[in-house]
Amino acid sequence: TIDVNFGMEQSYIYSVLTSDISVADAILDLIDNSIDAARKNIHIQKGSYGKFQLPSSYDGYKIDLSINEAGILVKDNCHGIEENLLTEKAFKLGARHEQNFSIGMYGVGLVRAYWKLGKSLEILTDNTKNSFRLKVDRDTVLNKTDPIVPATKTASDGVASNIVHINELHAETLKDVSNTYWQEKFFQRVSKIFGICIHKGLKITINTVPVPEFGPNIREEIKPLQAGQTFHTDNGVKVRIKVGAHQDYVFPGETGHNASKNKIFTKEFGWYVVCNDRIVLTAARTPIVGWTS
């Protein structure tokens, strides 16, 4: 008999994993993971919850991003990574996330972000029980015959924190982060995607600049537009559809009507899709969402 190898080259797996995402998407994955950590801590601290069993407030939580040609650093005070999560799931491809209402995905998001953005990764994390330091580079992972990478465990400082630092950036990453137009668009995108969380008190900064909240509300008092529906999908997802007028739109005949001012808001008209406080579709006005004019 002979042995037939059914294995896969790790470099091929990682190239497939990152082929369909942009540099911006990879960084957004890191922010998602920080927000998931905040939600986990809110649950542990028995915080208050509002609609759809989502946190009413993210007050006290902050995520600071430093993005430049020297590297990408994401620092938060949300929870820190627990030991079993770090050793078994955080970097294991395909590991399922057990947290309810998660928007990030350990086992995909963190690995994908690292592999997409740069060659070297360092994580400093403190979950108030223990502190860990993990440092790894791309070549080490590719050349190892086993998937285990050692991390250093020390006593906790008693303050939850997590730092993800990616450096030795790839050429594509360097090209984007050094482009002022990309920087402006990324800043706007973070505001739009995480605008609800920011409205609830989460603080996000990019290169020390605070990211503002985003997301127009609906005028609730207009009865002809108080249409809506709530239903569950076959796999148990609760969906709520709301239809209405922009919060600042004033109709003809109403006090304060001004056609010129109304035109300012037209760029915000359309359908918004929100999943677990993350705005995944913004002001969509295409036939795909049923918009006809």
Short structural description:
The protein is α+β, with helices and mostly antiparallel strands and 293 residues long.
Strand order of the largest sheet: 5-4-3-6-2-1-7-8
Mean pLDDT: 87
The radius of gyration computed from the alpha-carbon positions, rounded to a whole number of angstroms, is 22 Å
- The CA-CA distance between the termini, in Å, is 68 Å
Quantity of strands, as a count: 12
**Tally of separate helices:** 9
**Overall geometry:** globular
* Share of helical residues: 25-40%
Major beta sheet summary: 8 strands, mixed
Percent strand:
15-25%
Task: Give the ordered list of helices and strands.
Answer: HHEEHHEEHEEHHHEEEEHEE
Low-confidence stretches: none
| Class by alpha and beta content | alpha+beta
Entry keywords:
8-stranded mixed beta sheet, globular, 293 residues, single chain
Q: Can you describe what's shown?
A:
By secondary structure, the chain is of the alpha+beta class. It contains 9 helices and 12 strands. It has helices at residues 10-18, 23-44, 83-88, 109-117, 138-143, 171-177, 180-193, 195-199, 259-264, and strands spanning 62-68, 71-76, 118-126, 130-137, 152-155, 161-169, 203-206, 209-210, 228-232, 238-242, 271-275, 278-284. The strands form 3 sheets. Strands 5-4-3-6-2-1-7-8 form an 8-stranded mixed β-sheet.
